[in-house]
Amino acid sequence: MPKRARQRPRPAPAASPGRRAGEPPRRAAAPRPAPGPRARFAALLAASALAALAVLWPALSGPFVSDDLHYVPNNPYVTGFSLALLDDVLDPRGEPVTLTENYTPVHLLVHAAAWKLFGPDVRGHHVVSVLLHALASALLAPLFLRSGVPRAAAVGASAFFLLHPANVEAAAWISQVKSTASVALAVAALLALERRPALATFCFALALLAKPTSAFVLPVAALMTWTRLRGVEARRSFRWIGAWAVLLAAYAAVEMVAFTRAVAGVVPVDPDPLVRLRTSVGFVARYFAMATTSLGVSAFHEPEPARSWLDPWWLGGVAVTGALGARALVALRARREEAAYWVWAAAAFLPVAQLWPFPFPLADRYLYPILPGLLGGFLLWAAPHAARLLARRPRLVPAAGALALAALALFAARAHARARIWAVPARLAADSAANYPHGVNAQLLRATRAMQAGDRRDALAALQAASARGYERFDQLLANPTYAPLRGDPGFDAVIAEMAGRWIARLGARPDPAQSELLSLAVAHRLRGEREEARRAAERGLARPGPLREQLLQELRLLGGG
Hints:
Elements: H1 37-55, H2 67-71, H3 76-79, H4 83-90, H5 95-100, H6 105-118, H7 122-146, H8 151-163, H9 168-172, H10 177-192, H11 197-210, H12 217-228, H13 231-263, H14 273-293, H15 312-333, H16 338-349, H17 371-392, H18 396-421, H19 425-435, H20 440-452, H21 456-468, H22 474-479, H23 490-508, H24 515-527, H25 531-542, H26 549-558
Helix pairs in contact: 1-7, 1-8, 6-7, 6-11, 7-8, 7-10, 8-17, 8-18, 10-11, 11-13, 12-13, 12-16, 14-15, 15-16, 16-17, 19-20, 20-21, 21-23, 23-24, 24-25, 25-26
């Protein structure tokens, strides 16, 4: 039998640095797993929240202003909310609908929860809105990723939305929590539709009940499903989208009643329908300019109507509408998801296109739901072209990144400056007056300065000019101590009577006025010296349910009837 060859013992491996001789070698550390989607989103959300709070910090001390007053501190359904009032808040024909001029119970419940937590401390209310803005911004990144946008571009677009100066109004104005909440819920609905359709439907319903303009998400969901899915998965999603359509139809039947009451009596920008058409198309160009450059942002816009066929904004609107419409048709024919985003922008614009006139026909906050559609459409159109260019010229990659960071830094600086304006109501008025020197706020500022200079004649002329442009907040004039010396002046009393008369014409035409409307009617009649009509309105208000009994009794006491 052959002998086995004797095996020589192998020498021990040389000791590595940090290990003694004879000690067994250490195993190499396993590579750390890449963070999952949830961890990445949590990190993005945290970064977005910190960035938003830093950029918008000056606005966090801003007081309740304008619409905030009747939505929050002067709204008994917010400040005195309890479970006993929940039925009133959810009632589509209840008093809260009249107070807020929309059926948006989610909006009111967010304010009620914030009031329970923070009371009249405005900082807490501002933080809620800013954090919802950060959430809406962060949710856009996974939505863009799912649509095929490269990761860096998706995160950059999310930051672009977060820091856009036009979005300061929606994030810094307390009562605009409806805008930030509704967009966050709408994007969440789109993200959840494929895998969690029941949750998506719930988010869609909440978005509608936060702000009606969330209806834009329905055609977007349909187009995203049509371009992405086939077969059984597509049919399943379309069945759920059909449920969304039923929800929207039911909601629209309720909301249209409230909305038509709200806009009844609002004077359109011009009596000529062709002027109104040109003006609305001109708004397309204005919003596009705001979206792409941030130029043209302002508090309380008051643009002049497009009275000429050569108006540059009208012509620009025709060009933008034609270009984006043509691009949307190309994407639709190719069944590309890009089309869903162009439809998003159009569907979000339609509610603010002045088909129904608003007191302020143009506003920074109206761009808030439009901007994600423009971003998504542009990214999906530009991404293939950018990829080919950077593949041919890789040296451009650092330059492109630096340019994007510089643009974000510029937007952050401009947004921070806008936030400082929202910290002080007088700055808001001054900003509006600077951008619209013949507008209402310019006239009110002129009246204030004239009173401070002792020039009552010029103050009255300015107030008359403000009234002629549609200003009718006689309650604000009477509460402002600046105008106290004008009390009893025939000219001032005539301005107040004219404004009160417009309130009477609008509210008195409603067949079934709510308690808050009857209180306003009583005050307006009293200021015009129509005491009997004022008394009847107050007594009718007392006969209706609602939380304004003490105010109505006080009105009767002023009239000598209580």
